[in-house]
Amino acid sequence: MINKLKINKLKEKLISRILFFCGVFSILITIGIIISLFSEAISFFLRPEVSIIKFFTGTNWRPLSSKVSSDNFGVLPLILGTMLIGIISAIISVPLGLGSAIFLSEYASEKTRDIIKPLIEILAGIPSVVYGYFALSFINPIIQTVFEDWFGLDVNFFNALSASMVLAIMIIPTVTSISEDAIRAVPGSLREGALSLGATKFEVITKVVLPAALSGIIAAFILAISRAVGETMAVTIAAGATPRMTFNPLNSVQTMTSFIVQVSFGDAPTGSVNGQSIFAVGATLFMITLLMNIASDFILNRYREEYE
Questions:
Q1: How far apart are CA 307 and CA 24, in angstroms?
Q2: Same domain for 24 and 144?
């Protein structure tokens, strides 16, 4: 009996050490990524031909130009293209994802839920390259038919709307899964109390359940948008590679991630201003997604409803 207790204690210590090592290893990897990213980004901004002010306020992005000038390093077109695609994809995916979450948690039977939810989550497992070519072969022709033939508008074959639509499909599982968890966490007593007062099922959902789960739902939206902002291959294939200041989703744009892919596959030498520009853009993207995740955590903790 004593030997068995000693063996169990040794197992617990071993498991504790392994888990501690995993946690420390994850932290070290994160620190290594930050150091490698920001060391090159800082070197980029310290170059005499680069102006950090013009980098964040300039509207011309031509880092691969033969003429190296601070006027060619204005990241605003990339930020605008990234935000344009992220916002449109959120406008499409949020209603669909939230509606799916409400249906699965409030209306669907357990059998229906067990069938539909895995099918929605399959969307998250499809490679982004597949989504990109799906946009090229299926979504882009539809957009051109609708806007050119029906409305007479000029549409680039590579356009932000196509990338936004395919990104919306990609992030629907995130919105649906997290929103559903937040809705199902609302105690049934709140629903029963509202129903006993004569409220309809729709009124219970809109006036009781959704307000109670609001913090989790908002966090799901922000996480989904940050997922869209950080997407690479689908956007690179569908949206094109034209950095421009435009709010027209029918135009070709370039996002921060697609620029990183473009230069990474090119011939920019290591340590050159062109090569270091991808680290500067990556650091900018890192800070944007970090701020979005911090906002998500703040909203989740600030407005979380806890029930006994």
A1: 34
A2: no
Residue from 163, 180, 164, 172 nearest 96 by CA? 172
Give the chain's domain count: 2
Q: Helices 160-184 & 76-102, crossing angle to 10 degrees? A: 40
Asked if residue 126 and residue 35 are part of one domain, the reply reads: no
Same domain, 125 and 87: yes
Residues 36 and 80 in one domain: no
Q: What's the domain range around 34? A: 2-46
Position 296 pLDDT exceeds 80: no
DSSP annotation of 71: G
Left, alpha or beta for 142 (phi > 0: left; psi -120 to 50: alpha)?
alpha
CB neighbours of residue 290 within 10 Å? 11
pLDDT of residue 24: 92
- CATH number for the domain including 238? 1.10.3720.10
Mean local confidence (pLDDT), 123-148 = 87
Q: What is the pTM of this model?
A: 0.85
Phi, psi of 61 (to 5 degrees): -125, 95
pLDDT of residue 268: 64
- pLDDT value at position 155? 83
CA distance 169 to 144: 19
- 127 located within any domain: yes
